[in-house]
Design brief:
single chain, 363 residues, alpha/beta, Spore Coat Polysaccharide Biosynthesis Protein SpsA, Chain A, 10-stranded mixed sheet, two-stranded antiparallel ribbon
């Protein structure tokens, strides 16, 4: 008999998302476990159209506690977790079922997570998350917010880039910043005072001036614990906060550190190019943007990738602007041709081609 799969989701006031979330669940899940954390709309009624396993959980400012409550109620061989506004397309649902039906030698599988999309549906931010894991093997979520999966010892990890999870939010939400700051502040004042992840997430959530202090703390106190790729990612986030407060020179120093730590991703070079361009240092800006363009998207090592500068219009737009400031019409044409070869409907590149009289070329 092939292995079975439980799907578990925590929800609150998600009635609009339930149909898009669960429409394909029957193709891959043998059981659906919904944990409701206090809905006041028809979330539970909508969920019961797909499953009888709908549980109430008293919200306690701890996302991991709610997720673990759901895991404890899963009865199948494997567990898959999703957020209420995630989507599994039919082709991915069938791939999940195929994956589970094979000779499974892994304990946890990591798949791409497309967290944002442009108006045409192209992914603009891509990360990877652990999505399916062996039940009753000791997997559990940790951290009260922005939770992550804690592995048992000797867990066998599989990465499958053929299965995709997409995030599509269908409704306007109230800002979560106040809630997030409350939970994160409580965490660093309590059990997580020595945990870099909570300080890092607090830095990302805070207003720029406070955020800068927290990023300094993370890099000064925790760098020795972190992989170079993660340090680099933190440095880029730190630099963006410095830019918001007008500290361009310090931002460039931090971006230089990011480049040295992990030179195999575009974002520190691309970000440095933007800072230099805004400072009217156009030859240096062009150099940084060109270096960025020579670096392919990394397959491993960086958690989040801004696809707009790997597979989107934004990279080519900035490349065009850098060539424009250098009065290099041949470079302007190459940038537009390359951008339109990827996306022939790019509105800005089409506008610029017409405005500046750039020949059509291959675009």
């Amino acid at each position: 008999m092939p292995p079975s799969l439980s799907l578990t989701v925590i929800m609150r006031d998600e009635e609009v998302h339930v149909p898009q979330l669960l429409a394909t669940a029957h193709l891959y899940a043998d059981e659906i476990v919904i944990v409701d954390t206090g809905s006041t709309d028809r979330t539970k009624e909508e969920a019961r159209k797909y499953t009888t396993s709908v549980y109430d959980f008293a919200w306690c400012d701890d996302f991991s506690a709610a997720r673990n409550y759901g895991i404890e109620r899963c009865t199948k061989d494997f567990v898959m977790w999703l957020d209420a506004d995630d989507v599994i397309r039919e082709e991915d649902a069938r791939r999940i079922r195929s994956l589970i039906s094979q000779d499974v030698r892994w304990d946890v599988v990591i798949v791409p997570y497309h967290t944002s999309h442009d108006a045409s549906g192209r992914t603009t931010n891509l990360t990877r998350r652990e999505r399916i894991f062996r039940n009753r093997r000791g997997f559990a979520f940790q951290y009260p917010i922005h939770e992550c999966l804690k592995y048992p010892d000797n867990a066998v990890i599989e990465i499958d880039d053929t299965i995709n999870v997409h995030h599509f939010n269908l409704k306007r939400r109230e800002p979560s910043n106040v809630r997030n700051l409350r939970i994160l502040t409580k965490a660093v004042e309590g059990d997580y005072r020595r945990d870099f992840r909570m300080w890092w997430l607090l830095a990302a959530e805070e207003a720029p001036e406070k955020s800068i202090l927290y990023y300094r703390k993370v890099l000064q106190e925790f760098s020795h614990l972190l992989e170079p790729s993660l340090q680099s990612e933190i440095c880029v986030q730190f630099a963006r906060k410095l830019i918001l407060t007008g500290r361009a020179d310090e931002a460039l120093q931090v971006l230089g550190r990011a480049m040295v730590l992990f030179p195999l991703w575009r974002e520190p070079f691309f970000c440095a190019g933007q800072v230099l361009w805004q400072g009217k240092r156009f030859p240096e800006a062009l150099q940084m943007i060109q270096i960025a363009g020579s670096i392919p998207a990394p397959q491993r090592g960086i958690a989040n990738l801004d696809q707009r500068i790997y597979d989107g219009d934004e990279y080519f737009e900035w490349l065009f602007l850098a060539h424009y400031e250098m009065k290099d019409r041949a470079g302007m044409q190459r940038a537009i041709e390359a951008g339109l070869a990827r996306n022939p409907a790019s509105p800005r590149l089409l506008e610029w081609r017409q405005t500046y009289g750039i020949p059509g070329g291959r675009g």
